[in-house]
Amino acid sequence: MRIAAATMIAASAVIGLSAAASAQEQPGVGPNPKLPEPQQYLLPTVNIAPATSWREGAKPTAADGLNVAAFATGLEHPRWLYTLPNGDVLVAETNAPPKPAQTGIKAWFMKLVMRRATGPAQSANRIRLLRDADGDGVAEVNKVFIEGLNSPFGMALVGDNFYVANADAVMRFPYKDGAITGVGVKVTDLPGGPLNHHWTKNIIASRDGKHLYATVGSNSNVGENGLDKEEGRAAIWEIELATGNKRLFATGLRNPNGMAWEPATGELWTVVNERDELGNDLVPDYLTSVKDGGFYGWPYSYWGQHVDTRVKEQKPDLVAKAIAPDYGLGAHVAALGLTFDDGARLPEAFRGGAYVGLHGSWNREPRSGYKVVFVPFANGRPSGPPKDVLTGFVDSEGNAPGRPVGVAIDKAGALLVADDVGGRVWRVTSASGSGPSTPASPPAASQ
User: Which site in 34, 97, 279, 316 is 20 to 30 Å from 108, CA atoms measured?
Assistant: First the structure.
């Protein structure tokens, strides 16, 4: 098995290097990215930045005009963030739930690849509360908020009810004065195990508090496990909180994660991880508005009507209706976190748009992602190229001491970034001294 694995890694490295000659440095970025012809290889390109840890005093690199410092350290795989109205910051310490044993050398190999890329696989299954009571930009209160969950990810507070998206269901907990006051009850099931390939489930509350919207990723790359395993997946669900009833709001979204309400239009936006194994520069991950009833192509097509011939059961009538995304973020960048700057107090160059956490590629040469970017908006739409906010998550030796995931705005208007590999939450402020330092009024809307 070790010999086979070494052979696959070596072969993949060669394939990655040969394909790199035609790879763009910034492929698939913008509202109308140029898409190359698909390329398929015997083995996927593998170019992992192995997970390590931050050296003493090391941190990501902030863009000009910004500072970054650790808000909290020593966390166990922090993936997602949520700011409560009182200023407390919640962080989901989580990882994938246990998966059934899969046979075959490729399944074993992919498990090895992902472990090298993300670190330990066991999930802490809890949400931790961080509080900066004295306004110095560091959380001096660090305690468990809820534990005993099932790979928790998305969080939302609606009135006196706190909602958590587990890997297979949405749970509701009574909440008062910054604390959970009782046991949780299930609101509704979400498509889950035992396979549960894309396990992260995010949630966001509607502005009127009547609904939750929940993301559910696909159970495969491109339907290779059978389309019967994809029922209710690659989608965003709308959940009625009064009854727990739900309906499919949008479909054909391979792996949606972050969601946010665009401040000017009130539209729902999401970031989506697209499919793999079509080459270094396909398919771009993207940022898009989400239309009620919209179909976005997966698995039959990508970026509108570009048909994926690997899918055995084609549906041309459905492909004809596929909506092209609004904005490409780059191929294989693994776009996860999303928040608009509503309530942020960063420099003008980083206002009026969306912050996106790019977790980073494992199958591209050269690597892409591994940073946080800002996408400017005008009139409710992206209006220019992304600007780097935080970089430096891959060191000079090619290792990843950290990888950015969830992003949120804190009560003082700083940008918070969850770093799952580094076990930290980073806090980004203005370098001029005019940015956030002490608690201020809460943002107009929760993340």
Answer: 279
